[in-house]
Amino acid sequence: MPEFTEERANQLVNIFSIIPVVIYIGVAILLSIVAIMSLAESFIEIVFMISTMQWENGIIKVIYSILFTIIIIELFETVTVYLKTKKVPVRALLIAALTALIRHLIVENLSDTEIFDYLGISIVMAVLIAGIFLLKDDVHTGNLRI
User: Fold this and answer.
1) Does the pLDDT value for residue 1 go beyond 70?
2) Burial of 71 (0-12, 13-18, 19+ CB in 10 A)
3) What are the contacts of 128-133 at 24+ separation with CB within 8 A?
4) Residue 143 pLDDT greater than 70, yes or no
5) Residue 52: phi, psi to the nearest 5?
6) What is the pLDDT of residue 141?
7) Alpha carbon of 96 to those of 22, 53, 69: distances in Å?
8) Distance CA 103, CA 46 (A)
9) What is the Cα–Cα distance from 60 to 82, expressed in whole angstroms?
């Protein structure tokens, strides 16, 4: 049985550390494709809204599509920051989650929503906003303020 040296262990660690990078690159490529498709869908929704003159429903669909594109962009930025720094930017994920919640609220029929749903949504929004605020970059130093 061959001896397991420190050099061999370092080689294995280097090989295994490449795997997440390859996966993140694949995710970045897929997010890029989805973002382009989502942007195209937003343009199609605008053209459809103008051609059918269904303003009220059309505007909601356009905003829904645009917010979805923003969510994808935030996730893409999270992946690119990870590839550059090897750290996951939690603030970007919180912004994506808040955008997704707002997107859900715009489309959800609020007349069918129970009072407890409003309470739960309010708590989740407050937690997300607090997290975004607490992880805000310090403008002067560029460091995270916690």
Assistant:
1) no
2) buried
3) 128/94, 128/97, 128/98, 128/101, 129/98, 131/90, 131/91, 131/94, 132/91, 132/94, 132/95, 132/98
4) no
5) -95, -10
6) 40
7) 23, 31, 10
8) 17
9) 33
